[in-house]
Amino acid sequence: MKFTNKHPRPGSDGIRPSYLNLPCDSALAGTLLADYLCRRFPYVPRETWLARLAAGGIFDSQWRPLAPDAPFVPGGRLFYYREAVAADEPEIPFQEEILYTDGHLLAVDKPHFLPVVPSGRFLRETLLTRLRLRPELQDTDPDEIAPLHRIDKDTAGVVLFCRRRESRSAYQMLFQERRVEKSYEALAAARTGMALPLHIRSRIERGHPFFLMCETAGAANAHTVVEDVQDLGGGLALYRLRPISGKKHQLRVHMASLGLPILNDPLYPVPLPDGLPDYAKPLKLLARSIAFTDPFTGEKRHFESRRML
Asked: Which GO biological process annotations does it have (predicted)?
């Protein structure tokens, strides 16, 4: 049976439902669905699955709620809404600002500490979920709002979203073909005598623990240009950075590799103990601007963050 990624039911409180395709294994036909879910997700207690089924929180492909004794259906599809890891999901006390919107595009100025999409313990307190609930964005289907790129939750600045599913590929192609110009600003220790522009090329791969990135041997897959440095006094400088590639944590890793870790970085060069975020010490990294030619209108687009480091 062929499925599309489009789900038949709108999001709940701005949160898009997740789905799970069941394997086409006839040997499992008629066995308990709950047994399969426990094997598929061994870190989720059986009691949790049974409680969610009993509460009508898991649905078949026709959006009919499934009971705790529901049978496994080979090749079927389940829909469900992700639950926050903790019931007391922290509220992020900073607001996003919409810089621009039309029928296709949405440019947003993201605050520090706010994740772009649901991940880990963050489900509702994410930029995507907030945008889907904004009253001024209900003139099109808010469930179709999707990020065109991402920045770390620790980073503030400009993020682009697409408002229509059918428009998404045209904008994504701009990023794939590197026809989008992005400029970042970062605060770090001052260094004199740096020859500019400084090109940093290296290979960045997932490190250990899993949430860290690290430089490794091999062909370069990450490229950053340090375009300008402004001495601010007091041992600090403002660096203007242009990422040519878009690897996770790229700017943070490359600045740390220069011996110039970005001010207040909780991960690089050495991760700090996990704990409550210190809202008085945001990572001093800002996605200052983004520019490109709009694929639908041919207009030159330029969006700039109004935030300051």
From this structure: enzyme-directed rRNA pseudouridine synthesis
Q: Considering its fold, how many domains does the chain have in total?
A: 2
Instruction: Look up 294 and say whether it is catalytic.
Output: no
Rg (CA), the chain: 22
Tokens of 58: 């898991």
Distance between CA 268 and CA 250 in Å, rounded?
A: 11
Closest CA to 106 of 97, 118, 93, 115: 97
Does residue 170 lie in a domain region?
A: yes
pLDDT tens digit sequence for 144-178: 999 999 999 999 999 999 999 999 999 999 999 99
Compute CA 276 distance to the chain's CA centroid, rounded to the nearest angstrom. 20
What does the pLDDT look like over 229-267, one tens digit per residue?
A: 999 999 999 999 999 999 999 999 999 999 999 999 999
Query: Which of 308, 299, 304, 275 lies closest to 288, judged by CA?
Result: 304
> Whole domain around residue 295: which residue ranges?
97-304
Among 152, 154, 228, 294, the active-site one is 152
Beta-bridged to residue 101, according to DSSP, are: 106
Q: Are residues 144 and 256 in the same domain?
A: yes
SS (H, E, C) 191-211: CCCCCCCEEEEEEEEECCCCC
Task: Give every CB contact of residue 97 below 8 A, 6+ residues apart in sequence.
Answer: 108, 109, 306
Q: CA 130 to CA 114: how far, in whole Å?
A: 10
